[in-house]
């Protein structure tokens, strides 16, 4: 072609330049978007790496005063719960949150870290929230471990934590297990229904779903809600202060307020026989069960 380039080739080359500039911009935008998206996703993942388990415990209880300290095969119930929680691999730290000096002393004796919370805490979530504020360190996930489930499996705690860590959409996670047919109409046994991605749709003290025969359908896999729950730490800061909602008030189920406000809750299904201790009579039941299973 020599030194004389034709107008067309010069046009071509300038067009090429433009193409390259546009290409460069497109690649630049794509790279920037990828970096931003990665940072964004990482932010969620990173935010949810530091996990604390809190066992809220209060002495006063109308049905069972001093419940956390009741001996189960010679060990205080709160110690049994704490020992189980300590085995959970996902927890960086486990603390007992209480308003009671006797409980605090007992826990310090067996080696637990204790956070004193005020007597004005109305319930476990409020106590967890106050404990979180009082802890010097930052945490991303808070697991509320009920002190009255001394046989809680560490794997259940881990399952609930991992569900929340894997799902940036959810601010809350909890566990369910198969409902025993004899508990179908017990209002103290809370039932749950979930969608096909494992998000909670609803919780009820009544049997859900309802079969039009009016009877329990022996074929349906009904779900029983277990008390354990974990929260995104930022969500826990606002959770106790969200206004009570109509369904929450009607069912007397705090977690409904999460759903009624449009937040997502992840539900993990686990194999677990619930052995909550609600009354002094339950202590004997759990002791004989532990003997049966060589857990004493
Ligand atoms: C209701 O329960 C019965 C069994 O008791 C079952 O056969 C039926 O499919 C269930 N659902 C409806 C809509 O009837
Ligand atoms: C716990 O206390 C908070 C704040 O007082 C309240 O909004 C919530 O409904 C209470 N939950 C239960 C289960 O009573």
Architecture overview:
The protein has 296 residues and is an alpha/beta fold. It has one domain (47-292): Spore Coat Polysaccharide Biosynthesis Protein SpsA, Chain A (Alpha-Beta Complex). The chain has nine helices and eleven strands. The strands form two sheets. Strands 1, 4, 5, 6, 7, 8, 9, 10 and 11 form a nine-stranded mixed beta sheet that branches. The chain has a two-stranded antiparallel ribbon with strand order 2-3. The radius of gyration is 26 Å and the shape is globular. The termini are far apart. The model is unreliable at 1-13 (pLDDT under 50).
Properties at a glance:
single chain, 296 residues, alpha/beta, Spore Coat Polysaccharide Biosynthesis Protein SpsA, Chain A, nine-stranded mixed β-sheet, two-stranded antiparallel ribbon, 11 strands, globular, binds 2-acetamido-2-deoxy-beta-D-glucopyranose
Low-confidence stretches: 1-13
Q: Into how many domains do the coordinates divide? A: 1
The CATH superfamily is: Spore Coat Polysaccharide Biosynthesis Protein SpsA, Chain A
How many helical stretches? Answer: 9
From N to C, what is the helix and strand string?
A: HEEEHEHEHEHEEEEHHHEH
What would a concise description of this structure say?
The protein is of the alpha/beta class and 296 residues long. Helices cover 39% and strands 20% of the residues.
Topology:
Layout: H1 7-47, E1 51-57, E2 71-72, E3 75-76, H2 77-86, E4 93-98, H3 101-109, E5 113-116, H4 124-134, E6 141-144, H5 154-166, E7 170-178, E8 191-194, E9 200-204, E10 223-232, H6 233-238, H7 246-251, H8 256-260, E11 264-269, H9 280-292
Parallel strand pairs: 1-4, 1-6, 4-5, 7-11
Antiparallel strand pairs: 2-3, 6-10, 7-10, 8-9, 8-10
This protein binds 2-acetamido-2-deoxy-beta-D-glucopyranose (2 copies).
């Amino acid at each position: 072609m020599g030194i004389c380039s034709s107008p067309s080739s010069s046009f071509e080359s300038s067009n090429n330049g433009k193409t390259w500039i546009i290409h460069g911009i497109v690649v630049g935008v794509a790279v920037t978007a990828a970096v931003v998206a990665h940072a964004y996703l990482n932010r969620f993942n990173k935010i949810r790496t530091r996990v604390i388990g809190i066992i809220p415990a209060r002495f006063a209880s109308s049905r069972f005063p001093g419940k956390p300290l009741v001996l189960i095969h010679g060990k205080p119930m709160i110690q049994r719960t704490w020992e189980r929680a300590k085995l959970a691999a996902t927890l960086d730290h486990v603390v007992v949150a209480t308003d009671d000096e006797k409980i605090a002393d007992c826990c310090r004796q067996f080696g637990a870290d204790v956070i004193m919370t005020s007597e004005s805490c109305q319930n476990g979530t409020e106590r967890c929230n106050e404990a979180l504020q009082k802890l010097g360190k930052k945490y991303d996930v808070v697991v509320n471990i009920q002190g009255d489930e001394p046989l809680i499996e560490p794997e259940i705690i881990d399952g609930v934590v991992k569900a929340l860590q894997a799902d940036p959409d959810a601010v809350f996670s909890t566990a369910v297990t198969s409902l025993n047919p004899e508990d179908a109409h017990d209002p103290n046994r809370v039932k749950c229904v979930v969608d096909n991605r494992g998000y909670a749709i609803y919780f009820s003290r009544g049997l859900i779903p309802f079969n039009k025969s009016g009877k329990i359908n022996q074929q349906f896999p009904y779900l029983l809600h277990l008390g354990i729950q974990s929260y995104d730490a930022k969500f826990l800061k606002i959770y106790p202060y969200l206004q009570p909602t109509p369904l929450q008030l009607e069912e007397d189920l705090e977690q409904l307020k999460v759903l009624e406000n449009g937040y997502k809750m992840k539900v993990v299904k686990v194999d677990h026989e619930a052995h909550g201790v609600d009354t002094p009579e339950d202590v004997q039941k759990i002791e004989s069960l532990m003997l049966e299973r060589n857990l004493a």
